[in-house]
Amino acid sequence: MTAPSPSAPPFRDQRLPFAKRIDDLLGRLTLDEKVSLLHQFAPAVPRLGIAAFRTGQEALHGVAWMGPATVFPQAVGLGATWNPELVRRVGEAVSKEARAMRSRDDRVGLNVWSPTVNLLRHPLWGRNEEGYSEDPRLTSAIAVAYTRGLRGDHPVYWRTAPVLKHWLAHNNETARDTASSSVRPRVLHEYDLRAFRETVEAGTAAGVMPAYNLVNGRPNHVSPLLREQLRAWTDDDLLVCSDAGAPSNLVDSEHYFDTHEEATAAALLAGVDSFTDHGTDGRTIVARVHGALEQGLLTEADVDIAVRRQLSVRFRLGEFDPDHDPHTGTADFDTPAHRALARESAEQAIVLLGNDGLLPLAPDTRLAVVGLLADECKLDWYSGSLLHRSTPLEALYERFGAERVEFAEGVDRVRLRTSAGTFLHVPAPDDATEDAGAVRGAEGALDPALLAGRTDLPPLTTDVLGTELALADWGEGVLTLRAPDGRYLSVADDGRVRASADRPGGWVVQETFRLEPHGDGHLLRHLGTGRPVCVAADGVRVADGSGTDPEVFELVLAERGEEAVARVAARADAVLVVAGNDPHINGRETEDRTTLRLPAQQERLLRAARAANPRTVLALVSAYPYAFAPDALSAVLWTAHGGQAAGTALARVLAGDVSPAGRLPQTWYADDADLPGLLDYDVIGSRQTYQYFEGTPLFPFGHGLSYASFAYAELSADVTDGTVRVSCTVTNTGDVTADEVPQLYLRAVSPSAVRPRRELAAHGRITLAPGASARPVFEVPLAAFGFWDVAHGGWRVEPGPYELLVGASSEDVRLRTTVTLDGEPAAPRPVRERGLGAADFDEQSGIVIVDRTKVSGDAVTPGPAGTGELVYRDCDFGAGVGRVTVTVAGTGTVEVSLGGGAPLAVLALPAPGSGSGSGSGLYDYRTLGADFAAEGVRDLRLRLRGPLRLAHVGFSG
Prior knowledge:
Strands 16, 19, 20, 23, 24, 25, 26 and 27 form an 8-stranded antiparallel beta sheet that branches. The protein has about 950 residues and is an alpha+beta fold. The chain has 18 helices and 53 strands.
């Protein structure tokens, strides 16, 4: 190692540990300089030779927003591979491309905001595409792998510094910045925290990003769990980066604090270290921090803690040691290896849901390829721009020969007639503008939401013939209209309608419309602006209040999509229907889905194909599950949007070049009626996910078929040294080489509390030639058999029998055995000594968990119905108690009973102003008491009525 020059300050001395170097640098920074570093876009400090730095480079499945890069399958697709080693290699490739891109564009950041480890609890969540699985162990296995690849394997210097999103219990876009997730302690510890914890404990994550929502009534950006849980899992300096605009939400939309100074101080004290707010302009955040300092809400020492964590990441990224950073010269970008990995990951992500033997297709098959996604390679909000592009149609032309493949997209061909009898017309662009700016986002943007639509093309006009447009209905009446040259109708900032977009996209999509019945025709409403389309003298535009009336259009249908589909399907040996979603429309960030069903237009296309040809294969290309009737189909496959090699991967699987081995990372429910409410986060109480769901799913968690068959045998299980060691023999009994994914589940046989029907303990992905066998070994720590015991506030492994189930999915169990474990027996709640935390219930009905104070603690309150019940099992009253006390705020009554009996005590909180002296605020708690007799071990039941908050119940006497 080269010694520093005698004049170099200690923070430049590579011989010193990072902690000492950070101490030195902190001591040299002024307070103003330190405060400036708290914003996402931290400015340079020229006098110390410190460069500018920004947190936040999106890299969910490839480097995003910064122009062309290798695009891998969506995160939910990577989860469907069930292959951590493959995902590690993907993370490695992404981080190498980030380094290579930064070497030529310093806007590319190395603090990457990925992966998303929110669990896919509810399939209608708009951001389903961003997560890995509904299961915490599968999610953490994939997240650890991806972050390990992003981090790199150097012991000191990180290739990139990954930040996990979005802390915590965040599965709704509906009211996402104001809704509160009510998360009981067992769900918190056994479900929502687990994926974060295992990834942080692996040492591969540099930090986390809090989510927009509230948990138990308190915004995640001021959550005590950041300190009590997250920072307790590791000795590393974790960097907590706020989500965009979330610091301002604390006042502006959530109204949790009265002033921004108070909110900013609370967030920083809770553990937020970098504030993402007001774009690239840090002045507002800097002013708020200074205001908090002046008001005594913060000290310089508080600022130092946050700055230290940010500097720790910068040192680990090698910023201060460019001559010693092993990643500095990384140039791997769009390499043959990365292209091959993109194809391999897309292939491994494909799940075969059903097959009557039609697949793989015979080489001489005459194939009809139909559907709205058949000739598409869709990107999502967190994709980079495509360097390479493969659609199913293109790949099938290449694989089977263009002469054997016939295509029908299935769009409706329409013209729009105005009230004057003319038709909408798409003018041809002139030569100078035809190709300019053809690909949205190709140039890269720190904030692609700010990319403007094109205004260099002529707006639509009207004439006597008009232009035939391709109409696609993406569900709920949301339409796109495409001109014959492939460009989508869009609206730019000037309000004019043009055929100008290569695809729908953007934060506010400008390429979607809705036809609304109006008189004898329809208004054409542009959804991005919310305004109807009108025909003006200077062209077609959206109404702007200038006096031009909205146009009433007649939809003139030239051809229905079903007609074209039926025509080509009837001529083919087999039909491939490629259906699914556009990731920018219906079900995306800011927008949850409302149903599991396919859009009606796509259902019609599927019916038309099946009616014309019974040998129909459905390939779903989507960011989330659907509900449909699979029985009438010869085969069904699902893949997430697979990135640049998606089409090639699908064609190779259809042709049998690759045997599919993806597995579902989440339950596919049969009907909307099977789903809980979107905002119901109680996976235990409402029986959510495969762990608790008691119905029959359309396809179960872990499901996926193969072109081979596999036999399972010789299951063994041993308990030694705190580990359950499970193994079995898996044999390929088919005639093709294929991967199998053996899955190990566990189940408590006689639990004292509600436990999962089964939960994933381990899995593997193995490749077997015909006739070959392997014996995977799963080592499961005894702690994995534990649950969060609310009676005592900690983890407990219950003694007794546990069933071990091995098979090909959560429902396809091939082998089972039972082991008996020692553990800690159940003990009654010591309520006489400790009382009851109100949120530590065993069962509830109509109850919502809320914040006890703005700083810490939980309380409970009745939900919208105004009443609720709580049950606390096995409360030990000892030789007897004679009095009960409740710590409550608000107004209403608390009824206390034993078992299912009548109330033995009723405690009433009078309304404010009744002369009782009670406070009226949410957090104005008081303690009320009443006579209450109980002895021995009994179940306690509380009924709450009215707008009160109950924090604690105590017993005495």
